Amino acid sequence: MRTPILTVENMNVSFELVNGNYKALENITFSVYPNEVVGIVGESGCGKSLTTQAILGILPKNAIVEYEKMEYKQVSLRELRDKDWREIRGKDISMIFQEPMSALNPLITVGKQIGEVLKVHTSYSKDEIKKRTIEMMKKVGLPRAEELYKSYPHQLSGGMQQRVAIAIALIADPDLIIADEPTTALDVTIQAQILALFKKIKNEQKSSMIFISHDWGVIRNICDRVLVMYAGHIVEEGAVSEILKNPKHPYTKSLIQSIPDHRKRGMELFTIPGKVPSLQDRKIGVCPFADRCSHCFDACHIEMPMTKEIEGTHTVKCHLYTKGAGLTS
Amino acid sequence: MRYFLYKLSSFITTIIIVSIMIFFVFQLLPGNPAQIILGIDADPHQVAQLEKQLGLDRSPVERYMDWVAGVLQGDLGESLRYQLPVSDIVIDRIPVTASLAILSLFFTVVIGVPLGIFIARSDGKWISIFLNVLTQLGISIPSFWFGFILILIFGVTLQLFPTYGYVPWSEDFLGALRSFFLPSFAIAIGNIAIVIRYLRNTILDQSKMDYVRTARVKGLKERSILYGHILRNSLIPVLTIMGLLIADTLGGSIIIENVFSLPGLGNLLIQSITSRDFPLVQSMVLYIAIIVLLINFIVDMLYKVIDPRIRLKG
Amino acid sequence: MNLKKAKSIPFYIGVGLIVFLLLVMIISIFYTPYDPNAMDSANRLAAPSMEHLFGTDNFGRDILSRIMEGSQTAFIIGISSVTIGFIFGFLFGAIAGYFGGWFDEVISRFIDAMLAFPGILLAIMLIAVFNTGMTNTIIALGIMSIPSFARITRSSFIQYKEYDFVKASIAKGAGSFRIIFQHILPNAVSPILVAVALSFSGAVLSESGLSYLGLGVQPPDPSWGRMLKEAQAYIASAPWYVILTGLAITFLVLGFNLLADGLRDKQDRKA
What we know:
The complex is a heterotrimer. Chain A is 32% helix and 23% strand. By secondary structure, chain A is an alpha/beta fold. Chain A has a single domain, classed as 3-Layer(aba) Sandwich (Rossmann fold), CATH 3.40.50. In chain A, the strands form two sheets. Chain A has an eight-stranded mixed sheet with strand order 7-8-9-3-10-11-13-12, sandwiched between helices. Chain B has helices at 2-27, 33-38, 44-54, 60-72, 86-121, 127-140, 143-157, 173-207, 210-217, 222-240, 242-259, 265-274, 278-306, 308-311. Chain C is mainly α. Chain C is 74% helix and 0% strand. In chain C, helix 2 packs across helix 11, helix 3 (63-99) runs parallel beside helix 6 (134-144) and helix 3 runs parallel beside helix 7 (146-161). The interface between A and B is medium-sized, with 29 and 24 residues.
């Protein structure tokens, strides 16, 4: 068995709001292995971004993060002091966000924003930083990099801005890149270009990646393994091909059913009734999907299902597959 | 460029409206200026002659046009009391008021900005509530009373600064600085509090922006995030209230000059009201209003130059 | 107590100051320790003592009694000028915001023009023409506070006119008055309340400045600002005269500023 570069065990995140504390993530457990791209999929509000932000320790102050184990390359992140944390951020683990425009500082030239990572984490000279920045800008497909170096974010198109954000994430050659829906805010044609860039990064770079998306097409294209999240829980996990072929959790099934497909042209697109419950409306200790599930039975409203291994790395959290339920669909 | 023309045209329109307002407010004056100058017992013949000399026998519209035409040529009319062109009298007074305003703005920025940053960093702690009340106190204190307190502490008790009058800069630089120190600080107190509060709010707003998250993910120290990223974005909005602060400073100096007996525009204005020298008052009010409008116009333009988002779009 | 709740402390301090000074004002109508105008040449510029808690002034008059009496003027000036500013400001702002077009253009230009007068210059100009005294001071300060009311009303009207529930009732054919009173006004109340508090503190502050310059309230009407003008000459020999009188102004102004800030906070939290 390979050793994972990131391990998270039983992470819980709750928010301290004016009228009480609310659990946003429960028992999040997963690992990321070297050179692997792990996808996280689910509707908005399921806790995909929250999971990665909790790992990086960049949640707002009213968030309470607890876990049994969180290790990066066998080093527990719990004992890290602020200073060591900063060493890891940007250099070992980097992140790309959904909105490229707001993720960049409007008053600083893009070249400086990319080079800043090297300024913080290396002892390179100014010229060396600039050289490497321009190289990186070329690598992520920014045209006329020397000219663009001095421009401000608002002068760039959305796609170019996202390339800048990607350059920021890649320049220190991190071992783990977290991409939080990096194509969602872009036009469709630009989405395809950025996706192609990510595939190139996957093939050329030796780093692992966590790729958040709500789009199965994107997940299928990029990821090796996928975590399906619903209302703060990982409900199913496994190799992308396996999950797409043989989804077990009713939520995963409905998600896959609702993928638009040219073979289903003319048919009404499948949608899941209802919506993800908001933080305040969540029930604790029962299956979070029970209210929207068409296969739901008594047990679903009584307790939270255990994680059940289907085969190999494919696991699911659903009463349909726990011992004694005796039901198949 | 379109923005510039738009601002320029509204600047000019506002000046015209301000001048009309001022002129017609002064038309409401009871009594006859000529009579006032010559006294109640004056010879009616003489009064009529002076009226003609002052142009009082013509219609208000004609006189307004005359006044504006004069102002445009730098001629603000003639003071009744001094029997001198208003512009000559005003020019002598400008250095005093300008010195006060510049020094006061200096205090506002040099004290207000660091304290604003400090208070923003204390947000979420108990002390922030105390500091909130303290800045409100700074806004609430009457500047002239604060001037008295400064006189009491630094002038009377410690004897560090003179409490009235001034020395011109050309004679004694340090002496001039000392004489402007207390009055400038008295004017600045409210503006310092305003800058602190405003900067604190913009820093807290900016701290929630996504680019701050990016900076944090890059592994920057909180200090570098604040000074390298947040502060730049927070100071630009502060520039937008600069025009307001300058106006406040000029308004404040009207009173403070009288507290410290400084021969500036404010001092002249109050003297001329007391001696009922209305042509002087009328022209001075217009003059001060134009300065304020002009500064606002310049600040607007400056803002566009400093913010690259607008600078490069235009 | 947690920090979130503690954030309202300044608001309650503000309310406390206002209520306290309001009580002082009401009491002063019926009772002051001494006759505010009774001179006592044997007791000139006496330091604070048990007989004269705040000391006496240059005529031997009791400073506490004079400050108490001065609170009446402060409240009268505040209330009257805010009322004038509110009535006209609201009217102009509502017309500009509701009807838009040329009305808006003309009114907005006039508001801009009025805002070109820094600090109390507008009031000074009006008083130069109308002459000094209580009534003219109220009129001048009332006019001075018109722009802020007009601006706030205008923007509330413009903002709410765009809301769907207002558009819906316009579409249903509701009359202007109905729309204004049923839909727009209830929503504009809280920003206007903030403006009321701010204008009140502004008026008190400006009146003290004007009266200090000798352009505001004239004898026999009592005024804190004019007391400071008299006190200035005795700043070294009777510092309590200056300090205590100024504190009265500061506390009243601070009370309304804290009130305004607290109201604005509550309004932001609701939004």
